[in-house]
Amino acid sequence: MQDFPLYFQLGWQHILDFKGYDHILFVMVLCGTYTLSDWKKVLILVTAFTIGHSITLALSVLNVIKVNSDLIEFLIPVTILITAIANLMNKKSKPKGVNFKYWLALFFGLVHGMGFSNYLKSLLGKSSSIVAELFAFNVGLEFGQVIIVIATLILAFVLINVLKVKKWDWTFFLSAAIFGISFMMAAERIPGLF
Question: What are the coiled-coil residue ranges (predicted)?
């Protein structure tokens, strides 16, 4: 585990890298309908996403599953699009539960895990002992993900409680903006066209 700090750092730097902002957008839109008072629901959602991407990250890095990277790079913004649409279709001021979103986050986590694995595989090269590195990288990803969640919830708190923006207006703005960005990303990544 001597390389733990290195792979931990690579994990959080990867998810917080603005050049690969698709994962940031997904985590933001996933918790975009919640406020700080909903932290337990957000914890469940983030845990579901973590379980999903941890499974496929491990399976892909260990070469148990192989999926076309162009397809994964296209599907990642599609997951963001669908999550944004789900937010926009639910105009209720309080999210009524996490059942549907939990399964959505878990399933979409599977897709994102395969995206993370492409980066991690390039770092590992031909290394034969990768379990410790895989664990450290995943913990780093989670650390970065928590930073995104906290930043999003604090931004929502300031807008809703301090600046008195209506909760629906915040959710609509965030989800619509992320919808637009992810739509363009998906259009640019359609496999076989560009």
Answer: none
